[in-house]
Amino acid sequence: MTNxxxxxxxxxxxxxxxxxxxxxxxxxxxxxxxxVATRDVVVLDDRGGSPRRLAALTYIAVQYGFRYERASxxxxxxxxxxxxxxxxxxxxxxxxxxxxxxxxxxxxxxxGTLKPLPxxxxxxxxxxxxxxxxxxxxxxxxxxxxxFMSASAAFMALLLIPAGWTASLAAGFMMAxxxxxxxxxxVVRKDRLGRRxxxxxxxxxxxxxxxxxxxxxx
Length: 218
Known about the structure:
Elements: H1 2-17, H2 24-38, E1 41-46, H3 51-63, E2 66-74, E3 77-84, H4 88-102, H5 121-138, H6 142-159, H7 165-212
Antiparallel strand pairs: 1-3, 2-3
Helix pairs in contact: 1-2, 1-4, 3-5, 5-7, 6-7
């Protein structure tokens, strides 16, 4: 509760100091901080489906004691669910971030934007990859998509029968080929995102292992 009161106080200080008209990024951060200050579960959404914006907002929320849980799609809207992190290091991050918020700066971002600073850009990019991967994983599975697309191609072919069998079959095959290509591109994209996440996980484990080793004496 103390952290929540501090967040509200820092937000009031930020509004007092900020005499410029707030940018869209400022409004998004303010809306998110309103949830952070009053809830244990935060849901961020982007109607344009931008994982980049959501990754930046997620990074900021993590600095205030939350952790990423999952991402999903609801129509064209991309959603990210965050939950309050009870670990001591999360509370320490939140305390450190409050000072930056009071100074009018969202942690890790360029002023007035959701563009990450160079030192946190790799972390934000990894969050973006995680969000994209989870959103694809939450989407309709490829079998149901394949059935739907095949049915659509067959229906198109039936509609064109009056124009002749040749035109009907050609249109049906062309539509099926386009759908197959789209499915293949989605599978390839998901595999690429998965490899990136696995590589980041291996690198993180190696770093943790090196940090845990005793220092060599000279």
